What does this fold into?
Amino acid sequence: MPARSLTVAAVDRIKPPEQGQVDHFDKGFPGFALRMSYGGAKAWVYFYRLHGKLRRLTLGQYPSMTLADAREAWRDARKAVGKGDNPARKKPVHADSFEAVADEWLKRDQAHKRSYGEVKRVIDRDVKPVWEGRQIATIGRRDALELIDGIADRGVITLARRTQSYLHRLFRWSVGRGIIEGNPMADLPKPGADVKRDRVLTDAELKLVFNAAANIGTFGPAVQLLILTGARKMEIGALCWSEIKGGTIKLEGKRTKNGEPHSIPLSPHAAALIKKLPHTGDSDFVFTTNGKRPVSGWSKAKTKFDTVCGNAVVDWTWHDFRRTMATGLQRLGVSLQVIEAILGHVSGSRAGVVGVYQRHRFDDEKRAALEAWGRHVEGIVNGKSGKVLSIKKARAR
It folds into this structure.
């Protein structure tokens, strides 16, 4: 039936059909109509297309729902359809929103992973504000490209590539759960090239950072331990007294990036540093300010280090300590396999078939290497780096 502008008077005058039902569409309100039944009942209905399928929603009965109220209900329903939501569903309107699905994915698929904190920060900071209020089913390939390109245009290519990787996992999980039909991130070209850092601190720079730690409070000894062990930031930041056993830090799989148990022998220098640390009440955390949780605020600590070191040490990150130690150990004559074992890597020489059948843990070799590295660090801090022996010469003696 052709549309016409409905008024209250016009609605009252509409006569019921001799049989069946007739829809009287309201001009200027697409899909909105008054359905008149042969028995005299009048109902407000809304016809809409969602995911390619034509649907009908009954908004209310006339006269209990007035024309003005029915039009307002039509506006709300039409807005929901515009976001990809089905206004006829009983579940909350936002249950399939990107925010809700992302939170569910983080809880069910990511919470047990060490990368959880970083992934959550990226989703909350760089994705949710862009797709706020969007139903996840309405997010397509073009939306994905625009979001990733927007991050890349800020000059943070590595962050853009990581965000794309995180979202690919999220959408793949959503497909598996039946929330969406396809993954808009599938085969999406990655922006730029992944920037691989090659920053290695010189002996002079390492000395400045190590000595600067004396003026940084709780983070000071934590950073010194990072330098001496080559461990990851959160492995040391969340270190527990119960994980230090017999001169070795022993981490369970849930505390490592690759999910594998990892042991870090302590050199005499590192062991002496830990021995001087105070215990905070009954807390098991080695580095803590309140005893309830590990120390936090690494970014602020980095700013303090930058202030103390000034222009003498620039463009460095906490992770650069691992690369610096690995490079130093190579100079000291330590084999690649032992270096990888110290770093807790399962790639490189320990990947594939070799990793499956080669189960030697290199415990003795790791201890010897870290003791040599501890002597090296102690030597440069005390201004005697030229007299530090390589691990090969130390063994010969």
